[in-house]
């Protein structure tokens, strides 16, 4: 099996889902998509972030008049089905199924036109960037796909090539995606950026807490919770939750 990776960057106002990610930089959305045939595909999407962002993405997904798939000037026409699989504080899991797709120029349909059947897509949305990884049986026509994506992107979208190589790390990455509450992620990012986990330590909990304008005890609690999540996920606990 081979994999092809790339990134599409969006200007504000060019895509309703990406607009939410741009407005809320802490949002992290991972998906696993299966392209069934030229006129249908499914997606399971796990989104973490603040509640207003989750509500906005859910509203977009359930609005049948808004297209969140096309990367060209032509919006996809399709029968759309969406469902909420899980909803918790700071996290949302959505199921999407599209059928009877016509006039659609999404990454799924463009790849399906040139690459062999049986494609699987892993994606990550963060800020203005939508990262793609395509799992495929053969890369014989990847060059054609590359050229077509680059040529057909609508204004405001920018394409950047990643890599083309043997598939690697799908169990580790696509099926073990990490999500945690926004306040824990913020605390962990501040601790890493400040050098708290360096040897010797380059900062203290008091200094990080001051920077974040929270009590030291609150910071300590959030870091412990984040560290517990990381440790359990690393050793495989809760491994059946394959899209985390």
Automatic annotation (TrEMBL):
Transmembrane segments: none annotated. Residues 182-231 form the HTH bat-type domain. Residues 3-170 form the HVO-2928 N-terminal domain. Keywords: Transcription, Transcription regulation. Signal peptide: none annotated. PANTHER family: DIMETHYL SULFOXIDE REDUCTASE TRANSCRIPTIONAL ACTIVATOR (PTHR34236:SF1). This is Transcriptional regulator.
């Amino acid at each position: 099996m081979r994999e092809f990776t790339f990134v599409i960057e969006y200007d504000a106002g060019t895509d309703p889902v990406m607009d939410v990610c741009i407005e809320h930089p802490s949002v992290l959305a991972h998906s696993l998509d299966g392209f069934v045939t030229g006129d249908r595909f499914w997606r399971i999407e796990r989104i973490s972030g603040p509640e207003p962002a989750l509500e906005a993405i859910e509203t977009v997904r359930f609005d049948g008049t808004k297209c969140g798939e096309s990367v060209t000037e032509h919006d996809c026409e399709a029968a759309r089905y969406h469902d909420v699989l899980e909803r918790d504080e700071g996290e949302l899991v959505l199921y999407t199924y599209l059928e009877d797709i016509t006039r659609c120029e999404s990454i799924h349909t463009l790849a399906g036109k040139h690459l062999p059947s049986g494609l699987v897509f892993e994606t990550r949305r963060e800020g203005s960037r939508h990262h793609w990884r395509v799992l495929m049986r053969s890369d014989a026509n990847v060059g054609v796909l590359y050229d077509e994506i680059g040529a057909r992107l609508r204004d405001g979208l920018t394409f950047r090539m990643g890599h083309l190589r043997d598939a690697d790390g799908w169990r580790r990455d696509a099926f073990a995606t990490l999500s945690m509450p926004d306040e824990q992620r913020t605390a962990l990012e501040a601790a890493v950026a400040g050098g708290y986990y360096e040897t010797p330590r380059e900062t203290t909990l008091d200094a990080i807490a001051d920077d974040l304008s929270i009590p030291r005890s609150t910071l300590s609690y959030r870091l412990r919770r984040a560290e517990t999540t990381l440790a359990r996920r690393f050793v495989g606990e809760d491994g059946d939750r394959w899209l985390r």
